[in-house]
Structure formats: C-alpha cells, structure tokens
Design a protein that fits this description.
The radius of gyration is 17 Å and the shape is globular. The protein contains 4 helices and 8 strands; from the N terminus they run αβαββββαβββα. The strands form 2 sheets. A 4-stranded mixed beta sheet has the order 1-4-3-2, covered by helices on one side. Strands 5-8-7-6 form a 4-stranded mixed beta sheet. A hairpin with a 5-residue loop joins strand 7 and strand 8 (122-128). The chain has a single domain, classed as 2,3-Dihydroxybiphenyl 1,2-Dioxygenase, domain 1. The protein is of the alpha/beta class. The protein starts with a helix and ends with a helix.
Length: 144
C-alpha cells in the first residue's frame, strides 16, 4: 500500500541567497515557479518545475529561530540528475543564457552535461543516445 501511495520525490535545497539563486534557476536554467511563500516582500521558499521535474529552494536562516549553520559548502557532495528527452537542447539553451555547463559527453549510453549552482549543488542533465561511449560533443562538430 505504501508503494502505491508515494507519487514523487522533490529535492529540497537549502540555499544561502535566494535573490542570487532564483534568477539562476529561472532565467539561467529555465525553471518556473509552481508555488512560493513570500514574506516581507521576499520569496522565502519556492517549488520550481521544469517539464516533469521539480525541486524546492529555501534560504536558510543563519540567526534566530530555525537557524542553520552548514559545516562546509552548502551543496557540496549533492548531485541531482534530470533525465531529459534531449540534454543537448538544455545545454544549448543554458549556454545562450550565459550559464557555463560542462561539455556534454556520452556515459552509460546517455549524453551527460552539468553545472554547479551558486551554492555548489551539481545539476546534471542526461538523455539517451546511440553515440559511442566517451564521445564529447565537440568531437561530433565538423572542424573549421
């Protein structure tokens, strides 16, 4: 019964500066806001979506009630993999918006490209391909 009851998982990312993170996710990566909590004119929490994927962001408080002090870099060691129809399209769109992704490369039968967000969370985008393993996108382009 529990298995049928679970619908999805939505990662919750603590961010150090919502005013820096929101434009990165919205304008840079192409997410949109599905839900948000605004207090004192500032977005305190939001649920972002891109296609069928979602994640939540909330700026952590460094003082007072419910404060949190990370022991290291906030996103270090956390990787999120978004399975896409076309990861190369995500890569090209992000580049056109000034976001510097890693060069797409084939691994495990998938094009893989990624970026670290402002807090160090690793965001990777993958899509299936028949291109040989370890091929880099630049190797497919005609020499100039």
């Amino acid at each position: 019964m529990t298995e049928a009851n679970v619908q999805s998982v939505v990662p919750f990312l603590n961010v150090s500066d919502m005013e820096r993170s929101l434009p990165y996710y919205l304008e840079g990566l192409g997410f949109s806001i599905k839900h948000q909590w605004v207090a004192d004119g500032k977005v305190r929490w939001c649920w972002l979506v891109m296609g069928g994927a979602a994640l939540m962001l909330q700026e952590f408080r460094t003082e007072g009630e419910n404060s949190w002090a990370p022991s290291g870099k906030v996103g270090e060691g956390v990787s999120l993999y978004f399975i896409c129809t076309d990861a190369l399209e995500i890569y090209q769109a992000a580049l056109s918006r000034g976001i510097q992704f890693s060069e797409p490369e084939v691994s495990n039968g998938m094009w893989v490209t990624g970026v670290n967000d402002p807090d160090g969370y690793r965001l990777c985008f993958e899509s299936p391909t028949d291109t040989p393993e370890d091929t880099r996108l630049s190797e497919l382009k005609a020499p100039e």
